[in-house]
């Protein structure tokens, strides 16, 4: 029988059928920051965490790439050394080039200049193939399919929590600079063409608030990270 995850002192964990939706509901009810809800499903790991930002939403959205970097650090420490983990600006988690999961976020506030009451960041990662013919979807993969069969969901969740807290403490002490540098080094498709909404151009980087810099023939567009926020239903 496997034990449940053990979290660092600043975090409180609980199981949930739908971690993202329940975390948003708990946040609306005024739960403490640091609540981590999770679903250790047999084929998909789902995780959500509640933050209580003290800065405007534009800056608080750094928690999205921060949690993604925490995931990369955690899986990088557990997976075989030949496994490459990259982070896409839109939240895709990529393993050896293929999508293995997704980051998402919701907040009490949509105005980037206002301090939100709460911010929820969540992710899911596919552990096992969803069907018997994974070759039919070459751009989608799983931990099992990329040689990470020995990486357990509990170990990955615990490692993510630890690495996320390290990144959070560094962000609070040193600002966004170190996180910006680390995330940029892990960014997927930097310098390549990409499409966001009705814009297609070259992904040249991100600004100080992790807004997407998309260069077209005529100009460079800035798409704020708040564009990725989902409605808090």
TrEMBL record:
<dbReference type="InterPro" id="IPR028044">
    <property type="entry name" value="DUF4444"/>
</dbReference>
<dbReference type="Pfam" id="PF16917">
    <property type="entry name" value="BPL_LplA_LipB_2"/>
</dbReference>
<feature type="domain" description="DUF4444">
    <location>
        <begin position="190"/>
        <end position="230"/>
    </location>
</feature>
<dbReference type="InterPro" id="IPR004143">
    <property type="entry name" value="BPL_LPL_catalytic"/>
</dbReference>
<dbReference type="GO" id="GO:0016874">
    <property type="term" value="F:ligase activity"/>
</dbReference>
<feature type="domain" description="BPL/LPL catalytic">
    <location>
        <begin position="7"/>
        <end position="184"/>
    </location>
</feature>
<protein>
    <submittedName>
        <fullName>Biotin-(Acetyl-CoA carboxylase) ligase</fullName>
    </submittedName>
</protein>
<dbReference type="Pfam" id="PF14563">
    <property type="entry name" value="DUF4444"/>
</dbReference>
<dbReference type="InterPro" id="IPR045864">
    <property type="entry name" value="aa-tRNA-synth_II/BPL/LPL"/>
</dbReference>
<keyword id="KW-0436">Ligase</keyword>
């Amino acid at each position: 029988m496997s034990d449940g995850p053990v979290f660092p002192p600043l975090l409180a964990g609980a199981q949930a059928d739908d971690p993202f939706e329940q975390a948003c509901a708990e946040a609306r009810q005024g739960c403490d920051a640091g609540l981590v809800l999770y679903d250790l499903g047999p084929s998909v790991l789902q995780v959500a965490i509640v933050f209580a930002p003290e800065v405007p939403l534009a800056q608080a959205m750094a928690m999205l790439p921060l949690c993604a970097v925490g995931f990369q650090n955690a899986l990088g420490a557990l997976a075989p050394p030949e496994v490459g983990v990259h982070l896409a600006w839109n939240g895709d988690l990529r393993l050896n080039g293929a999508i293995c999961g997704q980051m998402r976020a919701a907040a009490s506030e949509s105005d980037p200049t206002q301090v939100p009451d709460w911010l929820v960041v969540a992710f899911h990662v596919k552990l096992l193939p969803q069907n018997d013919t994974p070759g039919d979807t070459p751009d989608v993969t799983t931990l099992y399919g990329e040689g990470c069969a020995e990486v357990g969901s509990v170990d990955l969740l615990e490692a993510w929590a630890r690495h996320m807290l390290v990144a959070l403490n560094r962000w609070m002490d040193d600002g966004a600079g170190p996180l910006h540098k680390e995330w940029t080094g892990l960014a997927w498709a930097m310098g390549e063409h990409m499409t966001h909404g009705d814009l297609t151009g070259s992904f040249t980087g991100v600004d100080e608030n992790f807004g997407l810099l998309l260069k077209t023939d005529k100009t460079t567009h800035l798409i704020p990270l708040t564009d990725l926020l989902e409605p808090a239903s």
